[in-house]
Amino acid sequence: MADKLFDRRDFLSGAVTAATSLASPRLIGGAATVLGLAASPARAEEPRRGGVMNIILQPEPATLVLALNITSQNQLVASKIYSGLLTYGFDLKPLPNLATSWEISPDGLSYTFHLAKNAKWHDGKPFTADDVIFTTREMLPEVHARARVNFSQVASAEAPDPHTVIFHLKTPYPGFICAFETSSAPMMPKHIYAGTDYRNNPANEHPIGTGPFRFKEWQRGSIVRMERNPDYFKPGLPYLDGINFVVIPDGAQRLIALETGQVHLASSSDIEFNDLARLRELPNIQLETRGYEFLAPLSWLEMNNTRKPMDDKRFRQAVMYALDRDFIRDKIFYGFARVPTGPIHSAVSFYDGNVKRYPFDRKKSEALLDEMGLKRGADGMRVKLELNPAPISQTWMRLVQYTKQALRQVGIDVTIRNMDQASSVASMGNHDFDMCFVTNTAFGDPAVGVARSYITSNIRKGVPFTNTCQYSNPRVDQLFDAAAKSNDRNERQRLYTEVQQILAEDVPVAWLLEMEYASSLNRQMRDVITTGVGVSESFDRAWMTA
Amino acid sequence: MAIMYRLLRHKGAAFGAAVIALVVILAAAASILYPAGPFEMVGGTFEPPFQHAYPLGTDGLGRDVLTSIVYGTRVSLLVAVVSTVVAVTIGLLVGAVSGYFGDRLDDLLMRITELFQTIPSFIFAVVLIAIFTPNIGSIVAAISIVSWPPVARLVRGEFLAIRHREYVEAAVVLGVSTPRIIFVEILPNVISPVVVLASLMVANAILLEAGISFLGLGDQNLMSWGYMIGEGRSTIRDAWWLSVFPGIAIVVTVLALNLIGDGLNDALNPRLARGVRA
Amino acid sequence: MNGALYIGQRLGKGAVVVLAIIIVNFLLIRMAPGDPATVMAGESGAADAVYVAQLRKTFGLDRPIPEQLAIYVANIGRLDLGYSHRMQRPVFDMIVERLPATLLLTVTAFLFSLLAGITLGAIAAARAGRLSDTLITVVSLIFYATPIFWVGLMGILLFTVTLGWLPAFGMTNVSAGQGGLAAGLDIARHLIMPALTLGLFHMAVYARLTRASMLEVFGLDYVRTAYAKGLPRGRVVRMHVLRNAVLPVLTFAGLQAGQLIGGAIVVETVFAWPGIGRLAFDALMQRDYATLLGAFVFTSAMGVIFNLLTDLAYLVLNPQITLER
């Protein structure tokens, strides 16, 4: 399960296949190979053109302009309107999107993208390299936190012709190829946004992109409608006539809508896990757990490494031993998860499972606590700590409750703090917490999504979702830094393997679950989840049986 | 039949008192009966009720529903009684001052009372709790703040009536200090209607607390009936017992308090009571 | 004192009450911990300091409090209840959008509770001491002791999960596009449980009140006189007793109307009814203060208006009352 990224040679061969097949009528066949669809047996079904797909949207995003709003709900919606240069397969290999082919220089400092020549904005203007440069050099760094970080690696960018973009990096950064997914770097029209106040641009009411679907209307609180883009740059696509995103605030109502076929797709967060288990049995519904490979969501119990007794790794190890992660996976998340072995999700490049393991073992946990000198008091408790709540959903609150009880068993007295989600996030950012729950996403490469939680330079008080556990290990910093800059696949694997081993020994945070989000699809639908981006894919090749 | 009806009233109060006594005993004895506490995961998840080990079933984490209901008595009683005491105290003060001094002060205080009465109390309580962060203290404070106006009105009315009675006038002439007059002369006569009102307020406070916990604004470290119902909501199709039993507990307790209130009303205001029965 | 002046006075008083509500709320909410900027950053998944600071600025959280309040109060006059940064919409628009749903629910519940309550109370009073009276009293007592949200859940358990007769959630079926009568019937079907749930508690209150009030009136002189004159019992009840007994119930109901709106927040949550109560709850969970404050002020104002309307109804029903303070 070592390397998911290909080397330079594979880039070129993959690019060539993609370029020829996109241009030719053998589109479906060629693309099918690239996308791994050929894995399925001889397809008796030909995609049918037509039909309108209904998708649940909850909660309603504030704005659909993807550059301004990258909440997961908006990724679901706006990824149909906007396009990125690349997308990523289940194996995280980059796949063409607006960029039909690309090359990386041997020294890893230059990335050249060749853009689709026939791509047009929804208002008819042509999509060119100028748009790419404007988007990545001007607009996104101002409004898009993640893109700002990714594109800060760029020293300069140039457009030798309207359909070619070259990025020159300051230092080699192999993770850069993962920066081009649609929600990570949505291409924005320069002719509409250049020189304007991005957030208050009147065009925000009617988003313009290059995607397979055009924005039609938005009845707030009710529905977002999109229709097929007849000028989409991939000929013959999309198959669907349109997509409706239906706003349904209530969980039970969403379930009914799905069961009765009124909607064709519900994303993971729309359905409670216990209901998912029931949906699995229904004849008209299929569950798809693929599609989260790019995000690779990993959830953990974060411990504040600067507070006693969590500054001692034995305590943190004791916590790991005290939590029955199989129980959590099976009884709280109804099997929709895997137990992680360390900081890197098993679907992410350079994952290595040869690390110290922590099976559920209360005796070991108590032994460690005893060794630390934390004796049980008169009330049976050794130490008192506070745990932030996670009032996101009932499932998460149950996890909070479970954690409290499980830790009590080994003598750690946990009190659940009374706060709302905003305050909890704020306290995490301000390092004002003992323990809290965090779900992090990897975005395809450990340098992009994983390192930020463990490196000393990302301990930034006041900002949540950084290294808030404040773990600081110079060797780990060194390893992450070198791995981010190395151009050599094997060397990167060596470095990441060592880092995983160190972190698994130090346990800065207690990794609990590799979330296996399940999308619920009506059986009429085909080819909806086709890449590692899952439901945030463009759906240009999704289709509906009669 | 009329006699039977009268008996029912008294029987009702007796029934109510018995239930409340049981609730108090359970609250006091909870840690003796179930020393591990309500959060302990004792059994399999989602065990249905009416089986040997778990008479009322278990929830999604394997916690015993019966244990949780018993512990829930503590939260309900604590919140309801404390908030009522606070609300009655505030109401007494405001009503006494308003009714005794009259004029401008009365106007001002009554305007304020009206203001608090006009605001929809549940929403007001919820907003207050959200502001002061949900915990047992802010819940009690919020319920007190939305509950005191009826007491103030009642006390004011009584004070207005009694203020000009002869014995009070006499005390004033004799130079008795104002606080003494208020607390020693007038207040004791106001107590009985206030007591009746208080019992109803305790009942109402339980309902308010249940609603607040149901919405998820309760204290996470305490097991309360409203919280149980809120938790059980998402699995109502598969685990109906999680929603049903805590609700029954609430209904029975509140009903008991209302019956006691009615009984007290009959006992303390016999004149009115007689008039009501045709 | 004539009617117009009275109405004017009442309106003025109501306005003052609403203003006081606004000021109280605004101050309270500003004292809260946590701020909206961090919530938005949290949802984005990858935050950094520049981004969060930018959000704070956009939300205007750096201007002095008195200035914010003064502007806010002035805006209310122009029906501008503020702007929800989270939803990127004016608060007033969101509230007005949801107003019909809440009105439909609360007015239906109000009418149901009044009609059912008065009817039951009248029957109980007319048959005082008999079995039906006992039955009605017991039922009233039970509903009076039951939390609204639990009634709703039990209703769902019975009528949706077990029997499958009634829909449990929302106002209409998800696939929109029905028109006219079909849509109306669909809404009506969805309205039954929420309205009943909201109304049952108050129905119990009004039943008890009506019963007590009627029994009191029965004992009054002029009623006995009417009997003495030989008027048929039914006519006496309808013309005199009911009319006069109902008036205090109506007054009380008017005062309670505001509380009904408060109960709507719970009912709308349980039944996913797309009204203002639900909006307020969502805003509360997300610390969207602009929306929360707006919804709060609006519902309080609605309570004041309901109160005023019932006062006027009282006036119409009983013109004998002189318009004196």
- End-to-end Cα distance of chain A, whole Å, is 40 Å
Sheet with the most strands, sense and barrel status of chain C = 2 strands, antiparallel
Order of helices and strands of chain C: HHHHEEHHHHHHHH
Kindly provide the name of the CATH class of the domain at 92-317 in chain C. Answer: Mainly Alpha
Query: Largest interface, and how many residues on either side?
Result: B-C, 50 and 58 residues
- Total helix count of chain A? 16
User: Within the CATH hierarchy, at the fold level, what is the topology of the domain at 92-317 in chain C?
Assistant: MetI-like fold
Strand order of the largest sheet of chain A: 1-10-9-8
Uncertain segments of chain C are: 36-48
Uncertain spans of chain A, ≥5 residues at pLDDT below 50? 1-42
What Rg of chain A is obtained from the alpha carbons, in whole angstroms? 24 Å
Which overall shape of chain A is indicated by the principal axes computed on the Cα atoms?
A: globular
Beta strands of chain A, count: 21
Multimeric organization: heterotrimer
Distance between the termini of chain C: 10 Å
Rg of chain C is 24 Å
- The spatial strand order of the largest sheet of chain C comes to 1-2
Percent helix among the residues of chain C? Answer: over 70%
Main β-sheet of chain A: number of strands, strand sense, barrel status?
Answer: 4 strands, mixed
Summed over residues and divided by their number, the pLDDT of chain A gives a mean of 86
Average of per-residue pLDDT values of chain C: 76
